[in-house]
Amino acid sequence: MLGFFLISGWSGSNPLLGAPNRQTGLEHLQGKIVVLDPGHGGGDPGTVGVGPTTEAENVLAIAWELKSLLERYGAQVIMTRQTDASASAGTQFDGERNGQLAARVAIANRSRGQIYISLHNDWHDNPQIRGTSVHYYKSQDLALAEVLQEHLVGHTKAVDLGVRRSNFYVLRNTSIPAALVEIGFLSNSEEARLLAKPSYRLEVALGLLAGINAYFAGEF
Question: CB neighbours of 97 closer than 8 A, spacing ≥ 6?
């Protein structure tokens, strides 16, 4: 990443952003360690919807935007994948059943990460369905899920589909507070179009940034 403004192509002002050495309300990110998990990758594109980009492409781009923002405000970021590659490639889990998922969990559990956030896009047989939801499994995950949903929906103005308890592998097996974010539906033409746009991916990242900051500030 060359830098926030160069990568995103975003310009203008945003109340969340400012010089890192000034009071911006984002000081709670300083020194925190965040594990970001862009879903799918490699031979697994995830959902291939009605838009020009796949789930794997979208969430990787959002993760890079969010990583840049978090690091701008003093957080350390660990990513389960940084390119269009399987998270299990070159690991002991490569080729195993659920190997991609096991590799992601292992990265989180072996790190010094304080929270784990898995990024995904959703799909529904009804193309009119749209919106964002956040999923959790363990009781320790709930506060993170709630604050991420609140700020993501508040920032992007997406339809609020709520916080749901879900038995996903990565949520069930991570030892740190964990949330899985379903950002829009690739079966919905409008959301699929938005998710392919760098400007919207940045807005998603800004919403998640605010949610992560609020979590560490204890605002839940």
Answer: none
Asked if 36 and 80 touch (Cβ cutoff 8 Å), the reply is yes
Walk me through the domains of the chain, giving residue ranges and CATH numbers. 28-217 (3.40.630.40)
pLDDT, tens only, 156-172: 999 999 999 999 999 99
Kindly report, residue by residue over 51-103, the tens digit of the pLDDT.
999 999 999 999 999 999 999 999 999 999 999 998 988 899 998 889 999 99
Q: Which amino acid is at 174?
A: T
Pair of tokens at residue 178 = 């964990």
User: What is the token pair recorded at 40?
Assistant: 């799918």
Q: In terms of Cα–Cα distance, which of 123, 119, 142 is closest to 131?
A: 123
Separation in Å, CA 126 to CA 22, 36, 130 = 46, 29, 9
